[in-house]
Amino acid sequence: MENLSFHDGNIFNLLHSRSTEPSHDVDQRMQLHSSLVRRLSQEQELEGHQGCVNAISWNSTGSLLVSGSDDLRVNIWDYSSRKLVHSVETGHTANIFCTKFVPETSDELVVSGAGDAEVRLFNLAGLRGRADDDNALTPSAMYQCHTRRVKKLAVEPGNPNVVWSASEDGTLRQHDFRESTSCPPAGSAHQDCRSVLLDLRSGAKRALADPPKQTLSLKSCDISATRPHLLLVGGSDAFARLYDRRMLPPLTSCRKRMPPPPCVNYFCPMHLSERGRTNLHLTHVTFSPNGEEVLLSYSGEHVYLMNVNNGVGTMQYTPGDVANFFSLSNILHDVESPPQVSSTQNGFHRNGSAAMLKKCTELVELAQSSLEEGTDIFYAIEAANEVLDAHSNDIESALRHECLCTRAALLLKRKWKNDAHMAARDCQNARRIDASSFKAYYYMSEALQQLGKCKEALDFATAAQQLKPSDADIVAKVESIKRDLQAAGAEKKEEPEGGTGRVLSLSDILYRSEANSDSSHDMSRSEGDQSDYDEELEVDIQTSMSDDEGGDPDSNAMRGSLNLRIHRVSDDKPIENSGDNGSSGTASSSQNDRTSYQPEGAIDMKRRYIGHCNIGTDIKQASFLGQRGEYIACGSDDGRWFIWEKQTGRLMKVLVGDEAVVNCIQCHPFDSVVATSGIDNTIKMWSPIASVPSIVAGGSAGPATANVVEAMESNQQKLSRNRENPLSVELLQRFRMQEFAEGNFHPFECTQS
């Protein structure tokens, strides 16, 4: 795969075209061309913070970089000199998680949000003429209306008057500097600022079919640069939400709990929309530079790309589609005719070239050879991705069908997280091409068996056996599935009477606790008392943080046991309930609202980016690189950061960027430079200075020689352990907030952000 060409053309041809016909489009394509991306290496390390650097952001021209840290400071860096210009003592009392330049203010206004639930605005002009060590700056505005940590800020291009803040209290607030420069602390007697743009305190969903009910702790938000009325938010469930600010109700007070407003679209990969994934949540959401796509980064999961608008290439699904996806009868009414011998040359449409035909055929053969030999599975999958994601419209159905089945088999052999779900997608798409495809039925049965859906697996295996009754592999597959079904039936009989025998995870307990807490607003005091409960739970704690990336991944894990007594605690803060809110009123009215709830649809994934690990922090970003957004980047818990080609998901580059975790990745607005930060106290600057292009090079320790696939496999093992032992990061965050309230929390400790 090293010698496979990329899709952005030859850089020398671009340079020649720019010299003969200067074009803004050519300049954009040149910013992060594939040949430059593969030469990225660490250029410089910016020193000036004394704690983890949780936020970095460029100004609009790229002349300045702002950063926020656990040291409670906001630093301003000059891009041309790579020097620290200002280090602002903000007055925050907990870790700074987000900071931005306010547009159209000559880069003099900077806003920050932190774990103390405050949003602060600073005018850097107040530092002029001061001594270097005189860095304390009184905020020009201070908003204290949030009740939990502020995790993300958003600004609108061209708007110097407004900033938006997303908080774990379930609200997104709009702060207009022209209307007020302060508000009393949340819970105070006079606290009644009307700044709530989105009230999602009853907005979280466990599944697409479920009505929203629990608090959606917001982790991220973004405003489209091309259509600023569009607002994207993500938080403590699996669904990112797109809102049109023009259609939202007027700003409200936080003292009045409102029902969640309708959104334009939900975004969630179909396989993540099922009920039961209680610890699944988003850590970052963002628009593409042209506003046509969104990127979602999940904790304990991968990075996913989706289209914003419904149209060609966009799949919108409903809860019914989710339930029927694994059914044998699904899509049989929508299959294509079996592949026919075409008059086109060697299986290509007329718009395909002979060279492209040869390339795709060779790639499919390479993938099939790897499948047979059981070697280089990762690169074989990338070869299939190249054919299906870059040339699917050019090849005819017969070759596409063969490639889909081959990729499904490769995914099932690799067995990384959710590979079985991806294989099932390929099998269903292969069935659309050929309804009598033995391979599609056979590999679908294998995928379903790996997913534990044995009844459905037996249906597909039986159908495959009818197509080839004497095939030894399918006969063995049918018997294997039958044994799994018998074992599952025997296990079910052994369950204790009156219960499933399943051990509840912490996130299960927390979700039930929040549900009871929220529903208690709907009940009289006597009804609410009946739902109080105390439960004691013993849980093993295992973190994935490791300082020795080359050793045993388990050797540095911190283990222990924790005895907890979990009980519902009433909220002392007075909250008015809106009369039209589904979560207010009597228990019977709440039940009626749930019964009458009409589930919405959601937009499915377009592409998945895989290889990194995101479980240790909940501020980990996934970013588009370049003005055209042709590459995707994300940090990882192993101290690396990954770059993929957006079109195909092909891994472009892996770089070592931190001693522990890379959280933030921000590309320069115009230059071929990327800034990253994480647990280290420094900011790394990356530029294409390596003499030779490669998939791994550079990093703080010099050229990397580690095996990339081994590193990714280690990350996948961590993701799988996180799934099997779903210790909720949210619970750890709650413990830290309790420690902070009791004065036992040190602000520089940032192993769990």
TrEMBL record:
Residue spans of biased composition, Basic and acidic residues class: 519-528
SMART domains from the UniProt entry: WD40
Determine if Chloroplast is one of this entry's keywords.
Answer: no
- Native organism is Brassica oleracea var. oleracea
Biased-composition ranges, Polar residues, are 578-597
Which UniProt keywords are given for this protein, alphabetically ordered?
Answer: Repeat, WD repeat
Keyword RNA-binding found: no
PROSITE patterns registered for this protein in UniProt: WD_REPEATS_2, WD_REPEATS_REGION
Q: Where are the WD repeats?
A: 46-87, 655-687
**Superkingdom per UniProt:** Eukaryota
* Protein name in the entry: Anaphase-promoting complex subunit 4 WD40 domain-containing protein
Share an example GO biological-process annotation for this protein.
negative regulation of abscisic acid-activated signaling pathway
Where does the record place the region Disordered? Answer: 514-533, 570-597
Question: Could you state one GO cellular component term attached to this entry?
Answer: Cul4-RING E3 ubiquitin ligase complex
